[in-house]
Amino acid sequence: MGSGGSRAAQVPDADRIRRETGFSQATLLRLYHRFRALDSNKKGYLSRVDLQQIGALAVNPLGDRIIDSFFPDGSLRVEFPDFVRVLAHFRPVDDEDTGTRDPMQPEPLNSRMNKLRFAFQLYDLDRDGKISRHEMLQVLRLMVGVQVTEEQLESITDRTVQEADEDGDGAVSFLEFTKSLEKMNIEQKMSIRILK
Amino acid sequence: MGIQAPGLLSPWPWLLLLVALRGSEATSALNKPTGPPAQQAPGAGLASGPALGERITVFELDYDYVQVPYEVTLWILLASLAKIGFHLHHRLPGLMPESCLLIIVGALVGAIIFGTDHKSPPVMDSNIYFLYLLPPIVLEGGYFMPTRPFLENIGSILWWAGLGALVNALGIGLSLYLICQIKAFGLSDVNLLQNLVFGSLISAVDPVAVLAVFEEARVNEPLYMMIFGEALLNDGISVVLYNILIAFTKMHKFESIEPVDVLAGCARFIIVGVGGVFFGIIFGFVSAFITRFTQNISAIEPLIVFMFSYLSYLSAETLYLSGILAITACAVTMKKYVEENVSQTSYTTIKYFMKMLSSVSETLIFIFMGVSTVGKNHEWNWAFVGFTLAFCLLWRAISVFTLFYVSNRFRTFPFSAKDQCIIFYSGVRGAGSFSLAFLLPLSLFPRKNMFVTATLVVIYFTVFIQGITIGPLVRYLDVKKTNKKESINEELHIRLMDHLKAGIEDVCGQWSHYQVRDKFKKFDHKYLRKILIRENLPRSSIVSLYKKLEMKQALEMAETGALSASAFSRPHQAQPSQGTKRLSPEDVASMRDLLTRNMYQVRQRTPSYNKYNLQPQTTEKQAKEILIRRQNTLRESMRKGHSLPWGTPAGAKNIRYLSFPYSRPRPARGGGAAAALEDADSSDSELSFAMFHEHSPARSLQERQRIQQITTVKSLNRGGKLSSSGYQISPSQEEHVGRSRKALRPKPLFHPVDEERESGEESGEEASPPGAGQWAEHGREPRRPLLRRK
């Protein structure tokens, strides 16, 4: 972004992206600038390395997983529309969205269900639609300091799975996951104010 | 007298104080019948024999010689002990601001002095206050100001702080004048000018004092900056206004003030303000320039920093410009460059010394306030005091809501009503108002005592009542979720979502007004940094230092049982659960506690500032821990043959992904600590990190040299690129290993992210300082912004 460049840069395919994600024009432009800023070799797409250069992600316990969520299905590059699509999950929910939505349209990306689905995929790495006990243990291990022993971690995992698991298969399906979080204000927790 | 302040645990300082005062009293009573004189010939104390004054006395007591410094030291010590006690109690610091404590201690000392009829040493007069006590306080505020958010919100801050102070001062002054006109209150002799002066001094707020109380409510960054910015500029503006109005009072009888004078006053106000800032900036640059050359004598670096700041203050005061604004501007300007130039220990010294000085100043002022409180020179006038209080609140509300209404029009992210309420309620007065009231010249203000009384009442009210209730208010406004106990499930998921949100916020970066900052950043990089930042030689090899660090960390972690094989290398052997166990509620509760206590904290985006203390380093430790763990995990996984430990199928993507470090020296992902963003610097540090990452003990010396060469390569690829769009050089350059080895200044590998890539802003305050905390030898603070060279 040179001093004159920021105004001239046009977001490619802006209308389609806007319809799909619901971002405003200004936000989309900012995201485009950000995308280009992260794109270190001006390749036109982002690779994992580009995202890893964000230092704050390095000290985020879930940093790796967050980066992985930008690269679904094992792809190596993230183009701008896909980048925006991931971020669209975090758009704050407008109140008028829920009321007047056309039922024929697909659910907006920032609906509660989609937000939950996004969070779910952070746990469920093998994409089998269920969080196995093993996967839960992995996440727990990532998020907890080193002073907790393995036995404690395992018992916490057991308890976590036990609380949510209703059909007794020892794993937490997406529906069970949703149900265990029904009291939580997901719309507020997973919304970022600046992504209006 | 009992111990009245909460949290004070030790009675010894009280006894000590009492003994000292009794002793002094006794001594002085014995020596001269007319009160304790300051200049007493030493040696004329109690004599062990008949007091003829001709024998050599074996044992003497001379208190008057040391009285002033002795008592001052005792006061400071007392306040420190009280603070220790205050912080030992878990809940107190979150309940009330620390100024409360200082005021209580001051009142106590005042009570003691009053009770023993002791004449307090004349510590505070106009000269001492303005020359010695005030500069450290202002310097500390300016130095710890986080620059990037400050500059981003500078329009709103200037608008609010500047106009707010003016509106408040004039509003309160005028309203009080109207009240004084009412005959019934017996205030008719207080004229307009005196009211205006009083208005200006009572409008000096100190909102930073309450910041600690609602810190954990996650106040958003712009709000935080408004409060901080207001505190910073408010002092300066109040003092300028105060001085101008005092000059008016001295100059004329108020009837003969003409519009010309008023205009001249306004012009002077602007000149004083702007001139002060200008002076400060110049001094800031000069001191930054000088620190460029101090690498061989780093012990004087703190001295230079302090002396130049102080000099800026004094020089500005010489020319009747605003010294406060000068020293603030000096600190803000100087900070960025000085931080990069000085050694690690100097940096720490500067920080701590600044805190210490300002803390001492403020303590003394509060003690003096306490002494004045418990005294005989009060003049209580119900109307004046009551209306002052009412008008303070009223005018603050008016100024907040109107000024923000206007500035919200121009902001991208306007302040909500809740934010404005918080700003309104944080208008706590502090030491500044009291000092200005205390220093009113009695000749011009015959009713000075009434002013002082009113000021004291306002301060007590705001500090205690507002200070204590602002915490609950903020929490209430925050509309947090209900406090009922959540299940373990929910806790885990909530924390996960918080981390996720923080991570995505980091991906989005900071958004601000690009163009102006862009231009300034380019100017900064092109010219300023070349002049002001030193270039120097590496002091030791990066590689060996890293090894040292890792070894130390590994030892520590092994000792705490963290690096046991089970923690990391048994992912695939996690047993399936052996049936669900029945857990009692207590077990669940204890499990939940365990979880809450041990989960990693979510990274705070807003800077946190505590006026009385430097932040503890827990975030640094946590960041270090996370980084080391990630590294270790990756190393384990690579040793096991390219599969990530969390059981993803070792698909093609993973193998290719992880094989980077082995195939070619591309900036591989490395354990995720490949931070640092700037154009060429990014590849530099992540490359070096990638190299370190694969630096297993089996590495040969030759490869180590290769590593070092590669790291030096980066330094060459800068310079002319800064004017370009700031993007990274092409990957091919990374493979030019054989370049000439330019001396490379060792950099910390883990930088906070600089989100503004285009503009290359380097504020180090956003991200938590990642793991380079022990790299003291390199003299770089882990929080340090990214270093650049020519």
TrEMBL record, chain A:
InterPro entries: Calcineurin_B_homologous, EF-hand-dom_pair, EF_Hand_1_Ca_BS, EF_hand_dom. The keyword Metal-binding applies. Keywords: Calcium, Cell membrane, Cytoplasm, Lipoprotein, Membrane, Metal-binding, Myristate, Nucleus, Phosphoprotein, Protein transport, Repeat, Transport. PROSITE patterns: EF_HAND_1 (PS00018), EF_HAND_2 (PS50222). CDD domains: EFh (cd00051). Gene3D superfamilies: EF-hand (1.10.238.10). Pfam families: EF-hand_7. SMART domains: EFh. It is found in: Cell membrane; Cytoplasm; Nucleus. Residues 111-146, 152-187 form the EF-hand domain. SUPFAM superfamilies: EF-hand. It comes from the Eukaryota. Belongs to the calcineurin regulatory subunit family. CHP subfamily. This is EF-hand domain-containing protein. It comes from Pipistrellus nathusii (Nathusius' pipistrelle).
From TrEMBL, chain B:
Residues 1-26 form the signal peptide. Residues 567-668 form the Sodium/hydrogen exchanger regulatory region domain. The chain crosses the membrane at residues 95-116, 128-145, 157-180, 192-214, 226-248, 269-290, 310-332, 352-371, 383-406, 427-445, 451-474. It is a multi-pass membrane protein. Residues 722-732 have a biased composition (Polar residues). Residues 712-790 are annotated as: Disordered. Its main location: membrane. InterPro entries: Cation/H_exchanger_CPA1, Cation/H_exchanger_TM, NaH_exchanger, NHE_CaM-bd. Keywords: Antiport, Cell membrane, Ion transport, Membrane, Signal, Sodium, Sodium transport, Transmembrane, Transmembrane helix, Transport. The keyword Aminoacyl-tRNA synthetase does not apply. It comes from the Eukaryota. The keyword Ion transport applies. It is found in: Cell membrane. Residues 76-475 form the Cation/H+ exchanger transmembrane domain. Residues 755-765 have a biased composition (Acidic residues). PANTHER family: SODIUM/HYDROGEN EXCHANGER, SODIUM_HYDROGEN EXCHANGER 4. Belongs to the monovalent cation:proton antiporter 1 (CPA1) transporter (TC 2.A.36) family. This is Sodium/hydrogen exchanger. It comes from Pipistrellus nathusii (Nathusius' pipistrelle).
